[in-house]
Amino acid sequence: MSFFNGLARKNPELKRKLIMAKIDKEPVQYVKNAFMSSLYVAVTVGFAYFMFAQSVGWNPLSTLPVLLVAWWAAYKLLSRIVDVRIRKIARDIDREVLFAGRFLLVKLHAGRPLITALNDASKSYGVANKYFKEIVQEIDMGTTLEEALERASRYSPSEKFRRILFQITNALRIGVDVTNYLEAMLEEIANDQLIEIQRYGKKLNSLTMFFMLFSIVIPSLGITLFITIVSMVSANFDLTFFLFLAGAIALFEFFFITIFKSIRPTVNI
Questions:
Q1: 36: part of which helix (H) or strand (E)?
Q2: End-to-end CA distance of the chain, in Å?
Q3: Could you tell me if residue 57 is left (phi over 0), alpha (psi between -120 and 50 degrees) or otherwise beta?
Q4: pLDDT band at 82 (very low <50, low <70, confident <90, very high)
Q5: Would you give the distance in Å from CA 16 to the centre of its chain?
Q6: Burial class for 40, CB neighbours closer than 10 Å (0-12, 13-18, 19+)
Q7: Measured distance CA(232)–CA(236) in Å, rounded
């Protein structure tokens, strides 16, 4: 267990990340599970490669580097699951962070106390209400409002939601009106999202041009030219070759679609 403790200590932010990702595991347990799972993957890949090497007459000792590379790749991939979860939750919160903040602002403008506004927000729809509910639960258990907000800000996966909670906490500590701070922060976040949309539009224009060129124009003209040349030289290509060519084009288009989805901003103004 000391070995896994050493691995966990190399990532001091892991405990905070596990809380942010809503993964109910201790850092040592998480590292151990990732390590053991990567061993299973490495053994499976190594065994498959060993059988293949035996069948083609390759040196069986070449399985060792394959085993090490498979273990290293699997461990790195499994160790990043917590980061993937954090990014996914952050994107879900960012889609409605403005609505959640404006909901609070409307309640505060209506004369509701901050605790009551947080309680109302915890009963609303969406992803952000879960975090408001955690704040309310901590307050009900005896935690002060400032401490509950500070903890929620520290463990929030969304940077935008963290900024809102941070500004509310600062306003409470200074003793000024929360609505002014909250309103200014929501306006700043809305401007940031507009900038993200503008940047996305510029990226989309460039990517669309490359997509049209490499996924439509070049394949269609290239295949037409290829078939013309083949018919002139009387070369023979079976159906497998054309199926492989179609699969390669489909894979290339899927790659572009994945890029389109990855750069799309998670905004909802």
A1: helix 27-56
A2: 49
A3: left
A4: very high
A5: 16
A6: exposed
A7: 11
Q: CA angle, corner 3, sides to 42 and 72, nearest 5? A: 25
97-109 and 159-174 are packed helices; what angle lies between their axes, rounded to 10 degrees? Answer: 30
Query: What is the distance between the alpha carbons of residues 55 and 49, in angstroms, rounded to a whole number?
Result: 10
Q: What is the DSSP string of 202-263?
A: HHHHHHHHHHHIIIIIHHHHHHHHHHHHHHHHT----HHHHHHHHHHHHHHHHHHHHHHHHH
Assess whether pLDDT exceeds 80 at residue 219.
no
Please answer whether residues 149 and 165 qualify as being in contact, where contact means their C-beta atoms are separated by less than 8 angstroms: yes
Length of the chain in residues, anyone? 269
Structure tokens at 27: 């850092």
Band of pLDDT at residue 47, cut at 50, 70 and 90? confident
For 5-30, give one letter per residue: b (16+ CB within 10 A) or e. eebbeeeeebeebbebbeeeeebbeb
Whole-angstrom CA distances from 34 to 84, 164, 220 are: 14, 34, 45
Rg (the chain; Cα; Å): 27
